[in-house]
């Protein structure tokens, strides 16, 4: 069985963990520099405020207290995502992050009842330990797990956990209702062509002859049909990328603990991701990096660090993404661990054409032709013909984030404060600051 664990309204839910007063209220999370809405709570969706609405248009609603707008707190979201992955690794044989808030779990050898129980346990545990609401979809294939997750989210009687077997009447009923365009990996264009052949629902696609599908459409569509029937044949990496993120990850030929090796791998993935980004004419708002050690080597210390780096403004510039990679690696690298896999995820994508560059932001797009030229040469002469060398320009970014919540889980200065006398808190802060200075001085002295 394959499970898909997906956090409901991830960014908003992270905010609510540390500010329960936001529960049940319409919340919007804004992009970097507080430009537009990139995540909405269910209540805000119900008000029909669309994704991408510029923040200034909502200023009136915000001032009247009808909605809450928060600056994005990527450090918090990245850390909560890492905690979710860790919790799942502690409870499941194998875990693969698919996006910042979606993780696949692989449950080989579990029977259906055990999977169902584990799903319920995980859901409760994630709520209790992390404060996050999730839905769990369980099924024999990735494609059906995605569908099961969707059902768990939309149909309240599942109570957040839905298990679908290949041949149950429930699966058949769901597939009969599902338009083929909503099946994972079926794009709008293919859906239109399928409609011409009289295939409108997922159920009708499942009934098609895979050989015919491969001949007339593509091997991916043939496999999708098989997956709908319960035969696993799609690797996670072959699945269609959600429009909101691009991931490039790969296992190393040989485990390495060298920072230079890891940097090289991450840089390669970042350059590939940036190419895909430009191909689909998107810009990214944040870069998520991760490394993994070999979990099968019980004799070696295990670590799966990740780092989330928000960009000052949305970008498709490889140089800016590489700078984020450099910064992220600094944050997550620990010597002494043998890593076997590295990945780069570009998150919260925005349509490059719709994104209007303001005067302030135009400086980051100074060389659109440079990126085009590099892509063209690499296409003609082979992947990686032109690559970027080391860049170590330290760009001290100053993001505008007037409404950002504290970085509760990653910053000593921004921890949650229990109700103590304000004077005591101030005194504790002064003491903490003094200790920090003393540590810094000690560090400097020990190196002089
Ligand atoms: Mg989600």
Automatic annotation (TrEMBL):
Top-rank taxon: Bacteria
Keywords carried by this UniProt record: DNA damage, DNA repair, SOS mutagenesis, SOS response
InterPro entries, alphabetized: DNA/RNA_pol_sf, DNA_pol_Y-fam_little_finger, DNA_polymerase-Y, DUF4113, PolY_HhH_motif, Rev_trsase/Diguanyl_cyclase, UmuC
DNA damage keyword on record: yes
Chain segments annotated as coiled-coil in the UniProt record: none
GO CC annotation terms, alphabetical: cytosol
Family (UniProt): Belongs to the DNA polymerase type-Y family.
PANTHER family given in the database record: DNA REPAIR POLYMERASE UMUC / TRANSFERASE FAMILY MEMBER (PTHR11076), PROTEIN UMUC (PTHR11076:SF34)
Annotated protein name in UniProt: Y-family DNA polymerase
């Amino acid at each position: 069985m394959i499970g898909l664990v997906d956090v409901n309204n991830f960014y908003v839910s992270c905010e609510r963990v540390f500010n329960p007063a936001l529960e049940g209220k319409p919340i919007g999370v804004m992009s970097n520099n507080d430009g537009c809405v990139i995540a909405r709570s269910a209540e805000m969706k119900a008000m029909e405020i669309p994704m991408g609405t510029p923040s200034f248009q909502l200023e009136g609603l915000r001032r009247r207290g009808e909605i809450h707008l928060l600056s994005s707190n990527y450090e918090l979201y990245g850390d909560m995502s890492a905690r979710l992955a860790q919790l799942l690794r502690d409870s499941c044989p194998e875990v693969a992050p698919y996006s910042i808030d979606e993780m696949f779990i692989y449950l080989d050898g579990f029977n259906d009842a055990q999977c169902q129980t584990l799903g319920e346990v995980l859901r409760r545990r994630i709520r209790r330990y992390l404060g996050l609401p999730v839905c769990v979809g369980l099924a024999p294939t990735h494609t059906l797990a995605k569908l099961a997750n969707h059902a768990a989210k939309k149909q309240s009687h599942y109570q957040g956990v839905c298990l679908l077997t290949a041949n149950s009447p429930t699966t058949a009923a769901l597939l009969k209702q599902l338009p083929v365009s909503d099946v994972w990996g079926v794009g709008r264009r293919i859906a239109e062509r399928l409609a011409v052949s009289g295939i409108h629902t997922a159920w009708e696609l499942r009934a098609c002859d895979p050989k015919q599908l491969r001949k007339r459409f593509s091997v991916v569509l043939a496999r999708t049909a098989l997956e709908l029937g319960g035969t696993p044949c799609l690797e996670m990496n072959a699945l269609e990328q959600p429009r909101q993120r691009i991931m490039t990850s790969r296992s190393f030929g040989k485990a390495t603990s060298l920072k230079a090796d890891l940097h090289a791998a991450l840089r390669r993935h970042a350059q590939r991701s940036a190419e895909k980004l430009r191909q689909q004419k998107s810009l990214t708002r944040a870069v998520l990096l991760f490394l993994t050690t070999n979990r099968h080597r019980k004799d070696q210390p295990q670590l799966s660090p990740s780092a989330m780096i928000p960009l000052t403004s949305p970008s498709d510039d490889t140089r800016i993404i590489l700078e984020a990679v450099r910064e992220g690696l600094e944050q997550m690298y620990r010597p002494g661990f043998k890593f076997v896999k590295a990945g780069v995820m570009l998150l919260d994508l925005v349509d490059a054409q719709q994104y209007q560059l303001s005067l302030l932001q135009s400086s980051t797009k100074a060389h659109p032709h440079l990126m085009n030229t590099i892509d063209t040469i690499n296409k003609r002469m082979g992947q990686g013909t032109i690559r970027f060398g080391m860049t170590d320009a330290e760009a001290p970014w100053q993001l505008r984030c007037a409404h950002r919540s504290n970085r509760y889980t990653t910053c000593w200065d921004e921890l949650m404060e229990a109700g103590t006398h304000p004077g005591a808190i101030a005194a504790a802060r002064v003491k903490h600051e003094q200790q920090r200075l003393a540590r810094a001085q000690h560090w400097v002295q020990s190196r002089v």
